Amino acid sequence: MSGLFDSKLAWGALLLLAIAFPWIAGNDYFLTVMSTAYIFAIATLGLNLITGYTGQLNLAHAGFMAVGAYTVGILTVDHGWTFWASLLMSGVVCVALGYVIGIISLRLKGHYFSIFTLCVGYIMFLVIEKWEGLTRGTVGIMGIPEPEAIGALTFDTPLSLYYFVLCFLVLLVWVKRRIVKSLLGRTFIAIRNSDELAEALGINLMRNKVLAFMLSVFYAGIAGGLYAGFVRFIGPDMAAVHHTFDMMIFAMVGGMGTVLGPLLGAIGMPWITQYLQFLQEFRFIVFGPILVALVIFMPYGVVGSFMAWRTRRATKEGKAHAAD
């Protein structure tokens, strides 16, 4: 059913397209747009892990991404850490914070959990905006250093930064695929399908939900750290909830509960908005109906709807073969 999306050939073709993109794009602006899309794709993969696979809608995801970015900014600018050590800490800090928040919030279910995390995300935004002694408030942190060279490899051009971000995306997509295909991934899916049934099968709900939450925010933290090193400036707006909703749209358009879906959504949607820029403020009049149409006619997203169609076709062919 899903062999097309699981085959090494298909993933290899996507990787080759990504490697060749700089020669297709032809200018640094397109490289910057695509690099930013890759960073948000990493964060979206994390959100999909807790929402699409485990069934818990975390509305504080952008807040964790901002925590990762500020961890890199504060450690490099204020304390002289290297970018690489700071990037590692961005994931560690988010995992530690995710554990504490997860232990508290995941006792709630459904929309109660979502509302709680929405409040947590807003608190994160306020802390970042108001704690001027640590985060510099609304001014933000400027002058974040670029990633240090690794041997002869430097990261001081849009092209080198593009491949820098792409390497992390490829690594984290591979890790995500390994997770969702493992017993742990099946456990997350069982929890998404039914808490009661999962518990009856002997699954520890709280432990596995917290683990999914921690893995999810680790992706957000790394994405935030990469964003800080790429843009080299961060402000409180990174924690705004609309970034979480953007990532939700990316995942929904591509297909929740799949690996490829959120990846395609996070990469494709920014390009749609880029090509609608000539409409200026009216572009959302076009963009809005497109999203509505996608939700109505492709409720499982592009990848999810295609997989569902493949399943229905295979079922019909099986019945026809049995009748013969």
TrEMBL record:
Compartments, as annotated in UniProt: Cell membrane
Protein name according to UniProt: Branched-chain amino acid ABC transporter permease
Membrane spanning residue stretches: 30-50, 57-77, 83-104, 111-128, 159-175, 210-235, 247-272, 284-309
Topology within the bilayer: Multi-pass membrane protein
InterPro entries, per database record: ABC_transp_permease, LivM-like
Signal peptide: none
GO CC entries: plasma membrane
Entry keywords, A to Z: Cell membrane, Membrane, Transmembrane, Transmembrane helix
Domain of life, per lineage: Bacteria
GO molecular function: branched-chain amino acid transmembrane transporter activity
